[in-house]
């Protein structure tokens, strides 16, 4: 596939799919089409199980922050790699991992580098401020302490498994 096809796929994922207008089921279907089953998220909570971790975490995050918006600031590519610089913003308006909605508006930036094979993302490397933004609502995808008020809530249990 051409670099233009890879860039269009990255642009569609960040610019259209994950943008406060898509329900979790649609996002999960797009995730399965975009990320290879063997996807490795080198900076994610479960690098070797990157797609499965995203499948568990994205619905929770999109439910807790349904107005999430990602704006692509820069996108370029060469060969089998595409780099994306984006800015995100969302409002914490629903329960996640036992944490009640705070109404806080969070903002972050991310830089992602994707490697493609056969029209799907097979690896990513990223850095940014999402974890810092999530910490303002009591959540972390890097250090993942279990909030003190988490009980037997099924979403909290699933999310904690993603984070550990």
Task: Report on this structure.
- The chain has 164 residues and is an alpha+beta fold.
- It has one domain (3-163): Nuclear Transport Factor 2, Chain: A (Roll), CATH 3.10.450.50.
- The chain has helices at 3-17, 24-34, 50-64, 130-135, 154-163; strands at 35-41, 69-78, 81-91, 105-117, 120-128.
- A five-stranded mixed β-sheet has the order 1-5-4-3-2.
- Mean pLDDT is 84; it is low at 143-164.
CATH class: Alpha Beta
Silhouette: globular
CATH architecture: Roll
Major sheet strand order: 1-5-4-3-2
Summed up, the helix count is 5
Rounded to an integer in angstroms, the radius of gyration calculated over CA atoms is 15 Å
Strand content: 25-35%
How many strand elements? 5
Q: Give the N-to-C terminal Cα separation.
A: 35 Å
What is the SS-derived class? alpha+beta
Instruction: Point out poorly predicted stretches.
Output: 143-164
- The mean pLDDT is 84
Order of helices and strands: HHEHEEEEHH
Largest sheet: 5 strands, mixed
Provide the number of structural domains: 1
| Share in helix | 25-40%
CATH third-level topology: Nuclear Transport Factor 2, Chain: A
Brief rundown of the structure:
With 164 residues, the chain is an alpha+beta fold.
Layout of SSEs?
Layout: H1 3-17, H2 24-34, E1 35-41, H3 50-64, E2 69-78, E3 81-91, E4 105-117, E5 120-128, H4 130-135, H5 154-163
Parallel strand pairs: 1-5
Antiparallel strand pairs: 2-3, 3-4, 4-5
Features:
alpha+beta, 5 strands, Nuclear Transport Factor 2, Chain: A, globular
